[in-house]
Amino acid sequence: MDFSHYSDDPVSMAVDLVNTLDVVSGEDRLRHPDDVIDFISQYEDGWCRPGRQPEERDLHEVRALRARMREVFTAPDATAAAEQLNGVLADVGAKPRVSVHGTAPPHLHFEPETDSPVRWLGAVAGMGLAVAIIEGGFERLGVCGSSTCDDVFVDTSRNRSRHHCSDTCTTRENVAAYRRRKRSAED
Ligand SMILES: [Zn+2]
Ligand SMILES: [Zn+2]
């Protein structure tokens, strides 16, 4: 079965959604209902859209979804991650349907065609993570190893060697490690 429709944008959507809250600094990029619109509009083409404009209530629901999605990344093992993710998919009402749109062959979609932003986001991003876990393994889900960053990531490197959320964090940590080594060599 081809779930690959859910493997690029939806995975980024899940990662980016969790990372809209910097849990180290407390800085939240979802402060206003319009921020939810801005977040969703990063992902163009091929996806249905929520059935209505986000309101204050939706903002709170999306933040709650974000917290639950983070727990998929921080779960102790694949069983716990699956349980957490299945809870999200059930609560947002992710439901398979055969979709025929554009020039694509008929394929499955799981998000509602028209519904609240949280149900749409939860179904698309939730299915993205589901596919990432099924095809790549739970070990590919990670939290940044930097001491100043707790952003999440999905490791798509061939040998699953990623420890940080971004090149910025890798560079910063490498520089810090180099300085530590240099200091201890000088002692
Ligand atoms: Zn489609
Ligand atoms: Zn990081």
Largest sheet: 2 strands, antiparallel
Terminal Cα span: 59 Å
Strand order of the largest sheet: 1-2
Bound molecules: zinc ion
The structural domain count equals: 1
Poorly predicted ranges: none
Describe the secondary-structure layout.
Layout lengths: L8 H10 L14 H9 L14 H19 L3 H14 L5 E3 L7 E3 L7 H20 L4 E3 L8 E3 L12 H20 L1
Antiparallel strand pairs: 1-2, 3-4
Helix pairs in contact: 1-5, 3-4, 3-5, 4-5
The site of one zinc ion has 7 residues, from strand 2.
Short description:
The chain has helices spanning 9-18, 33-41, 56-74, 78-91, 117-136, 167-186; strands spanning 97-99, 107-109, 141-143, 152-154. The protein is mainly α. The model has no long low-confidence stretch (mean pLDDT 91).
Defining traits:
6 helices; two-stranded antiparallel ribbon; binds zinc ion; 4 strands; 187 residues
Write up this protein.
This protein is mainly alpha-helical and 187 residues long. The protein has a single domain, classed as Jann2411-like domain (Jann2411-like fold, Orthogonal Bundle), CATH 1.10.3300. 49% of the residues lie in helices and 6% in strands. The chain has six helices and four strands, in the order ααααββαββα. A two-stranded antiparallel ribbon has the order 1-2. Strands 3-4 form a two-stranded antiparallel ribbon. α1 packs across α5 (117-136), α3 packs antiparallel against α4 and α3 (56-74) runs parallel beside α5. The chain is globular. It binds zinc ion (2 copies). One zinc ion is lined by residues 5, 46, 99, 101, 104, 107, 109.
